[in-house]
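User: Before I run my own analysis I want an independent prediction to cross-check against. Here's the chain; please return only the structure tokens and, at the end, one sentence I can use as a sanity check.
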Amino acid sequence: MRNVIFAFGICAATASCKKPEVKEYTANLKATCYDCIVQYAAGPARGVYDTLSGTVEGTDTLRQTGTYTMTMKEGDALFFRACRIDTDTAFGAIDLEVTGDLDALSITEDRNMDCAVLNQNVRFRD
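Assistant: Structure tokens:
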């Protein structure tokens, strides 16, 4: 009987010490630019990098689009940035777009700017 009470006490203590579940949200990121480095992160997480090269077809310079999915938690800040690799060859604008389980965000920087940045707290939709 004593072992049963002890086992019940351990189970009750373990259940009461359980961490509350943290709700997770999905952020869909889209960057469009020519010859740039893209970096993104949620909260204090270390950023992830990608390179978007773009292409040249005949006399047209075409920007490349990268799409990324990131999981965020309530209270996480969004960091999303795209910067030109070589500012001497700035072809076209830099576009950043964020959709998903949060209020949509976007920014467009023209060819005179070296970077486009979204660095802010976001509001999630339930």
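Sanity check: The helical segments are 2-16.
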